[in-house]
Amino acid sequence: MFPPLQDLYRIAPELVLCGFGMLVMFLAPIVPKAKHGVLTFLSLAGAALALASTRFMALNSGDAYSGLIRADAFSLFVHFIVIDVAFLAIMGSADYLKREGLDAGEFCALILFATAGMGVMAGAHELLTAFVGLEMSSIASYILASYRRDAPRSNEAAMKYFLLGSFATAFFLYGVALSFGATGSTHLDLMTPLANDSSHILLKLGLGFIFIGLAFKVAAAPFQLWTPDVYEGAPAPVTALLSTGPKAAAFALAIRIMASVDAAPPLWFWALCVAAVLSMFAGNLSALVQTNVKRMLAYSSIAHAGYILVALAAAAATDHMEAGIAAALFYLVSYAIVKLGAFLIVAHLGGAGERHVEIEDFAGLARRQPGMAACMSLFLLSLLGLPVAAGFLGKFYIFNAALESNLIWLVILLGLNSVIAAYYYLRVIVTMYMREPEHEIAALPVPWTLAIVLWIAAAGTIYAGLFPARIIGFATKAALNIR
Amino acid sequence: MQQTFLLTVLTFLPVAGTLALLLLRDDDHVWIRRLALATALVEFGISLLLLRGFNSQVAGYQYQEFRAWIPQPPIHYHLGIDGLSLFLVLLTTLLTPISILASWKSIDQRVKGFFICLLVLETGVIGVFVSLDLFLFFLFWEVMLIPMYFLIGIWGHERRIYAALKFVLYTMFGSILMLVAILWLYRLTVVAGYPTFDVPQIQALLSNGTITPPYRTEMLLFGAFFLAFAIKVPLFPLHTWLPDAHTEAPTAGSVMLAGVLLKMGTYGMLRFCLPLFPEAAHKLAPAIAVLAIIGIIYGALVAMVQVDLKRLVAYSSVSHLGFVVLGIFAFHAISIQGAVYQMLAHGISTGALFLGVGMLYDRRHTHLIAEYGGLATPMPVLAALYLFSCFASAGLPLLNGFVGEFLILAGTFQHHAAWASWAALGVIFSAVYLLWSYQRVFFGTITREKNGTLPDADLRERGILFLMAAIILWMGVGSPFFTRRMEVSTQNILQQMQRPQATYDAGSIHDQNRNSMNLNHSAIAADTVNLK
After folding, report:
1. How far apart are alpha carbons A246 and A241 in whole angstroms?
2. Contact B411, B338 (CB under 8 A)
3. Element (H or E) spanning B323, and its range?
């Protein structure tokens, strides 16, 4: 039986992404190696078309496949993030792949598949569907992490990511099973505990496991231990993707569960607070002592997961969750563009084999490549949360949401952490602008693809930082729409 | 009320200048300097237009601009100035071209970046002084950190990186708490039913009792705002970033830091701490005054024993700014006026001192007092003009420092005779450390051979120092020009500190609130209509 057209419209972006992914896979062995630029281009077209096809979702909002997938403003918002991230990641890594002698076709196809999985996670309104999305994105990410096959670090990263990621998905699945036992359903709207005492406990246990699974995925403490190794070992463009897209999708799933399952917010509230505080401190304090930029950015992304968890905690603390959810969504946008940009810069500056990824290698960058240094500074300042960059407003909205929920202690801890974070972000800027390199490093020509990506990221950061009205308006609409 | 664009132009013209600078070639140093100077001079010229249309009899804000910006939460682009901010803006626009002139020759590395930073800094500082929306204010407050960080960190002296980082971390620590307080204040307005970040509106809501923050909340809010400002001023014991930042910064950076950036702290106290949280301000005033007095005396004593001339001037700032804080927290119309006056006077006279020190450094590349001595012989003009600034800074009558300190002490004496007496010690000490250091640098015999042949101030340097001296003298004898325009605004601050007494009476809170809410509603409506 063929599904009704309406349902296909509601998963249009995933269809496009998977379609193009398979097309690229199919063409990869046929197209001669020298012409693999075509595949990159095709994947970019796929991502662009997927972005355009969200229009179908928007016009046909509602439940698809008898409620397994829900196409609503929230899903739309997250789709925008993950597809944009995929587009920029593919474009920004084109030159990297050429430099490292890696195959572009498979790489792009995997990114498209992973993105489709993230899209499913964003739209899933049923836990097993969500699980399918989670696995789709995870498995593609494992392969991507090991994409530099002859580099031991890349393999190590992939292995660690695979093992711990499997644990996480297992936790998630176990939680789904327990919740199903407690409620008799995996559909988010129907998950109310059956009328007996034990099912309440069972549901709590189930939701707890689900939380742990998702906390792994967003790299929140105390489940963050894999992050620095994986982010450091994986090829830098892959890290750019891993630290943004899957994170956004996992947060989206957590938010959707929180908004739909009544038992989740009160149970998760304390877990969110604890995870937020631990992540912020673990991330920032460890980042302080790093000498490797990739590793430092990895720890910083743990800290940022903590910031977003504060927004989630703010949402969980009240009945009307809009402010918290909108803040989390806005932050995800502001975080994703700059983190992506920062990792792509690291990928570029690392040079062949990613040999120059120590902070010291950035010395004198402002003289060598002033444009690159300026972009990197902008991204770091945004991560640090200084105004004009989007990161400031992101933090502002999180502060606001948390204060609305009377979580002032959490706000103060967040504030304290941004000051700690200032130290290590500024250290990179110090190195770029105020120190001279010990041995001469040649300036690397910036490929036009990367230049475009960085321009988009920089312009987006400033645009969102100065004129956030449309983005936050959309985010609020998404947040209102989810309940 | 008619919308004007003057303040917007004033705020963003320097940024427009930097965009033009970006178009120039990196090594075209001459034109980069000329363009930067031209921008700053045009900016100064435009800022003088403010004086023409400024009505000194109006207590409220003038040249207001009010535009929607971010709908949610309701943040507006609201600018305006009163007698308090008018002269601070003028001070900024005056000191920027002077800083540019002062760095004409001494900056020969990465010239373009330097002037871009300086102009962006000007935008940030002016933005702080003209913003009437808490969010906008905070935005500029933070934005200005970045260029200052680069100014110190790239073009500073030996320990520049340490100093730059310390400066940023200190300020950020204070400002992040201020951000929390701003949002908390916003939540209070939300609860009251009038969500806003607008300073005049919040002021109105607090003044008529629509919002009556509980005592503890008010203390915390005051504390968060005050901490941010006290770090910036800096008030003892939060001053430790200042000597490093001032000493390590290039001359232009020191001039801007001492001249305007420190004033952002005292300006914030006057604009926010006092009018918004009067009860807490009254409660904590004695403690703050004690810190201010300690700062005055401690700063002066530490300045006395410095071996580094620039550090000496830096510590003198701690002492002088202590006077300003004391004047503010004496809550006397005269002392507050004196505080504002002292802010301007300190900007000019300490600016002049830093410029003089910078000129010495350009010649000898050292700040150590022991390296100098007998300089009056080879460079009589510089020596004379430097002495003039020393006198101004020490508060000699007829010069600008005297007016400010006198008003502060006179006003403070009316309310707290003991405070004024202790603070007066600082005046004596300042004469000691300034004149003693002057004596060691410029008088006596020449101990280092190099010093005998140092060239005297050239035309550019003479121009700068003569201009500063002229302003010092003018501010000393022509003070009514300034006080007349700031009088109404300073009194207005004291008036804004009044709260309806009845709100403390538990029985009538409800009625009172309802009445004032109605009143307030119409007031705000009227206000909004006016603005539109």
Report:
1. 8
2. yes
3. helix B309-328
Q: Are B87 and B344 in contact (CB under 8 A)?
A: yes
Which pTM was predicted?
A: 0.90
CB B441 within 8 A of CB B382: no
> What's the pLDDT score for residue B504?
46
Burial label, B235 (beta-carbon count in 10 A; 0-12, 13-18, 19+): buried
Residue with tokens 């990895």: A298
Q: What pLDDT does A239 receive?
A: 92
Q: Most A CBs within 10 Å: which of B183, B184, B191, as the mutation test of the A interface?
A: B183
Asked whether the beta carbons of B149 and B190 are under 8 A apart, the reply is no
- The tens digit of pLDDT for each residue in A165-200 reads 998 999 999 999 999 988 888 888 888 877 777 888
Least confident of A425-429, B305-309, B497-501: B497-501
Per-residue pLDDT reduced to its tens digit, A379-392: 999 999 888 889 99
Q: Which two tokens stand for residue A335?
A: 């975080």
User: Cis bond leading into B397, ω under 30°?
Assistant: no
Residue of chain B minimizing CA distance to A464: B70
Two structure tokens written together for A103: 């195959």
Rounded CA-CA distance B184/B402 in Å is 40
Element (H, E) at A113: helix A104-123
pLDDT digits (tens, 9 = 90+) for A122-141: 999 999 999 999 999 999 99
Token pair recorded at residue B226: 């005050």
Cα distances from B341 to residues B91, B338, B475, in angstroms, run 11, 5, 9
| A416–chain B Cβ distance below 8 A for any pair | yes
pLDDT tens, B90-136? 999 999 999 998 888 888 888 888 888 999 999 999 999 999 999 99
Continuous segment of H or E residues that includes residue A70: strand A69-71
Helix, strand, or coil here: B71? coil
Name the token pair of B397. Answer: 């009558």
- In this prediction the ipTM stands at 0.89
Question: Do residues B233 and B90 touch, judged by C-beta distance below 8 A?
Answer: no
Tokens of B339: 């505080």
Strands B75-81 and B62-70: antiparallel
Residue A378's pLDDT band (cuts 50, 70, 90): very high
Residues 6+ apart with CB under 8 A from B368: B307, B308, B309
Which of A305, A342, A303 lies closest to A428, judged by CA? A342
Report the mean per-residue pLDDT for chain B: 85
- Chain B: closest CA distance from residue A290 (Å): 18
- Measured distance CA(B7)–CA(B201) in Å, rounded: 20
Residue B466 identity (one-letter amino acid): F
Helix (H, G, I), strand (E, B) or coil at B131: strand
C-alpha distances out from residue A453 to A354, A421, B134, B279, Å: 20, 26, 34, 53
Chain B residues contacting A, CB < 8 Å? Answer: 69-73, 135, 138-139, 142-143, 145-146, 149-150, 153-154, 160-161, 164-165, 168-169, 172-173, 176-177, 179-180, 183-184, 186-187, 190
Consecutive H or E run containing B409: helix B400-415
Q: Which is nearest to B78 in space by CA: B150, B27, B130, B142?
A: B130
pLDDT digits (tens, 9 = 90+) for A196-234: 778 888 888 999 999 999 999 898 888 888 899 999 889
Checking if the pLDDT of B507 tops 50, the result is: no
